[in-house]
Inverse folding.
């Protein structure tokens, strides 16, 4: 990380309203603190978990004779694995607008396959799958901002 990138990060932190940001990479660690309201965001890139099991979706029970319109039950996502964002940035499904998407719904992925790119501070970080399976759902729109630990994909394990 060079001085220009650090200056851009400082500007970004001051505009975002965050009180403290800590970033750790292999041989580099930076913490930026402001005098704003106490909100803390930690982005630890190498140690950040990329894949975790999704929590089951719970639905409220309804009375058997309730006069409510039929609503489809929420999809059971407990059998899927969630690929989450390891950092704050902008989510991209392809390397450039002219290039094909890294993955689409129904595609099979294997461990180490690039599934998206997250741009953070003008650096493009390839996000790799840590599981093998089939992409069931893409949870983020292309070119949208994402937060640390935000779910990006649902993967059905093979």
């Amino acid at each position: 990380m060079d001085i220009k990138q650090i200056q851009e990060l400082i500007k970004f932190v001051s505009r975002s309203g965050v009180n403290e940001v800590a970033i750790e990479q292999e041989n580099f660690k930076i913490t930026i603190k402001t005098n704003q309201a106490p909100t803390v965001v930690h982005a630890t890139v190498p140690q950040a978990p990329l894949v975790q099991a999704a929590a089951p979706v719970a639905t409220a029970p309804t009375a058997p004779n309730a006069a409510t319109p039929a609503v489809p039950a929420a999809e059971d996502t407990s059998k899927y694995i969630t690929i989450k964002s390891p950092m704050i940035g902008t989510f991209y499904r392809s390397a450039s607008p002219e290039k094909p998407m890294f993955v689409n719904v129904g595609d099979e992925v294997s461990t180490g396959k690039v599934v998206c790119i997250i741009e953070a501070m003008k650096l493009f970080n390839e996000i790799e799958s840590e599981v093998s399976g089939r992409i069931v759902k893409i949870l983020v729109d292309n070119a949208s901002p994402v937060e640390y630990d935000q779910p990006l994909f649902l993967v059905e394990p093979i």
Observations:
- The mean pLDDT is 77.
- The two ends are 38 Å apart (CA to CA).
- The first helix runs from residue 3 to 16.
- The chain is about 10% helix and 35% strand.
